[in-house]
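Supplementary Note 3. Input sequence used for the single-chain structure prediction.
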Amino acid sequence: MATKRLGIIMNGVTGRMGTNQHLVRSVLAIRQQGGVALADGTRVMPDPILVGRNAAKVEALAKAHGVERWTTDLDAAIANKDDTLFFDAASTNMRAEVIRKAIAAGKDIYCEKPTADNLEDALDLHARAEAAGVRHGVVQDKLWLPGLRKLKMLIDSGFFGRILSVRGEFGYWVFEGDWQPAQRPSWNYRAADGGGIILDMLCHWRYVVDNLFGEVKSVSCLGATHIPQRWDENGQPYDCDVDDAAYATFQAGDGVVVQVNSSWATRVRRDDLVTFHVDGTLGSAVAGLTRCFTQSRVNTPKPVWNPDVPQAIQFFETWQEVPENQVYDNAFKVEWELFIRHLFDGGPFPWNLKAGAKGVQLAMLGLQSWRERRWIDIPAL
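The predicted structure, written as discrete structure tokens, is reproduced below.
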């Protein structure tokens, strides 16, 4: 069986997500399964080179996972004509600069989001990629989570009837770092490093809402910095100058109301770290990362408001779980495989730098809504 090589420059994968989701569970998992199968039966084998600023970290990561190539010289890596795909998972505030370099060198682009920390740069990246004729994609991983794929199946089947509203809850308690180490990096809480939950999460909610419930038409967003001081990786205190919680409402599609709370300062009492509760005329569903529960119109209980007696209905018991009728692969890996097939087989790949710019646009308008305390319509891009 014929095999084609795909040289991938993987920049900034020493962080938790870059290592676990993109390197180990995506690119290396694809190598372990024998590559990505194309339409003609040919297989594409990724050949990564790891790039980072800290030589000790990059070398240790490469050795730990049997990756032969690594470097701290990003410019030299981009200049290598044998590596044709540039992937970036470094910090947000550096992304636009390094992607411009890669586009100028003729590399195809695949990157994390946000694609930039402002809309102008995000749109510029898309325009440059189109002008250069390079292929481009943006990580929009939540679309391939098992819970959301089950939710999409329900939507496509007509289960909900007319969708009325969506309520999303995302977040968990991120420890401050003084008496227990934080489970998120300190740059998340500094504006100069591209931090803030609005910039981070509204990019996610844009593609989730656009792809499941209809394009976002307007936004109202309230941000908050609930924890003003935290302690960094070296145990040093620092001031948080960005939002660590966002309370957003979107109008989408044909009048669907979408409310999403995002917080790094909340304690979880729900089915998962993120849940989406969808109400429709014919039924409702609650989807998490992996599981999805439904309640149809005919199975809906009839509670009566009476605060003087304990509630007799066990509401959680009135829902049915959507069964596991198929095997769901890692969400990041699924999109990696789709993008690799796009590079070799062609065909559309809608989750590109234009889609990434739409996510940045929503984040910027969410921040504007917070500053100006008002609803803002979303202009077409």
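Residues 52 and 58 are 6 Å apart (CA to CA). The domain at 143-323 is CATH 3.30.360.10 (Dihydrodipicolinate Reductase; domain 2).
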